[in-house]
Amino acid sequence: MNQSKNTKEHILDVSLKLFSEKTYYGASIRDIAKAIDKRESSIYNHFKSKEEIFEQLILKFSSRNFGPLILTDQLINIISKPEKFFILLSENLIHFWNSEEERMFIKILLAKNSNGESKKYYSIENYLNDFKALSEFIFREMISHKFIKKMDVVVLSQEFISPLFLAAIELILGLKSETIQKSLIKNHVEFFWNSVKK
Amino acid sequence: MNQSKNTKEHILDVSLKLFSEKTYYGASIRDIAKAIDKRESSIYNHFKSKEEIFEQLILKFSSRNFGPLILTDQLINIISKPEKFFILLSENLIHFWNSEEERMFIKILLAKNSNGESKKYYSIENYLNDFKALSEFIFREMISHKFIKKMDVVVLSQEFISPLFLAAIELILGLKSETIQKSLIKNHVEFFWNSVKK
DNA sequence: CCAGTTTATGAACGAACGTTAATATAAGGA
DNA sequence: TCCTTATATTAACGTTCGTTCATAAACTGG
């Protein structure tokens, strides 16, 4: 996309796309080089191996702070109206997960084993935990302000996040259209809200 | 495993393992041949290409009937005690998804794009729909017998299945131990039951 | 403008890839 | 037993793989 940005970032950008489309073994160094319009040998001026490209890609995405993208000001303003809040929160999450870049990253996480040697890697479990932590924080706040019933925030997070994230996975790996998600969100929040309202 | 079974089945068996561990591009015909202790050329007496092995593998697994494995007699016997029923149903599902063979198949589905040319393929969405259909059937029965509140069975299925299947995915792709799942099931069923009991 | 560093190129390496062909062996029915 | 068919092997094909190397071009600070 942005040709003028530094080459290392550019390589990571196209690698995200290629690894997500063809998996690690299916995307070659030559594919990556072609995508940035250079020869494959020049890649090695920026990364010592294909494996290192992958590692740095995961590292880059695993060390973001997406909190402000989900917990928008608009959202925080309506925390006292939990049902509306849950709807908007769900929309923010689905919108984030379904953004072009995030789809690609999630695809890579889903295709990646935590098998053997790569145990050190960031996995889909770590990814989900970041979102669960965010939503646990939200539920703790809501409970302390008595907006919802007093319940275990871990359970609340799991019950709130799971149907949304699984729908996102189906959206990412399948052919489901995004419009279907509107009613899914509505139904899910309705069900959830009935279980947590005071 | 079973050396004496016919070679075609044997090839599919080891391909399931290899494709799930190293993805489609990472597992070679020579890997597969080595795993059945034959030369790579003899594979082509049974399949016309690597792609065909993959296709038949997906076909084989997508045309099973797992219903009786989930809906056991023991389970059906306690349908009038919904909370107990949900616990056992959850355990059956997690046990099934976490079996060695099923872990491998799910890994393959998760690593597989429904991108472009492969739209025809069975995807994780189809897989999940099979389980949702099963659980919709269960909820319809429960509602008609007035064991639970009258609600949309699609919503019930989604809310019941999602946290369980997502936990299974974490179990399969991550390093989570199976013991953690016991409390997850308990918490999930408790939350769910509180929302659907009459 | 020059020296030093960074980045790009072109060519090559050994290995592995999917697949094919010719041929040998094993199995099964007449 | 012989003939046919199914399955195996060995060898090779053209490609692509990840990576290296010598060298050339581009950039950067003094």
Brief sketch in words of this structure:
The structure is a homodimer of 198-residue chains. The first copy, chain A, has 198 residues and is mainly α.
What would you note in describing this structure?
The structure is a homodimer of 198-residue chains. Chain A folds into two domains: 7-61, Homeodomain-like (Arc Repressor Mutant, subunit A, Orthogonal Bundle); 64-196, Tetracycline Repressor, domain 2 (Orthogonal Bundle). The first copy, chain A, contains eleven helices and no strands. Chain A has helices at residues 7-26, 29-35, 40-43, 50-62, 67-70, 73-76, 82-97, 100-111, 124-144, 153-173, 179-196. In chain A, helix 1 crosses helix 4, helix 7 (82-97) packs parallel to helix 10 and helix 7 (82-97) runs antiparallel to helix 11. The first copy, chain A, starts with 6 loop residues before the first helix and ends with a helix. The mean pLDDT of chain A is 93. At the A-B interface, helix 1, helix 8, helix 9, helix 10 and helix 11 of A face helix 1, helix 8, helix 9, helix 10 and helix 11 of B. The structure holds a DNA duplex (30 and 30 nucleotides).
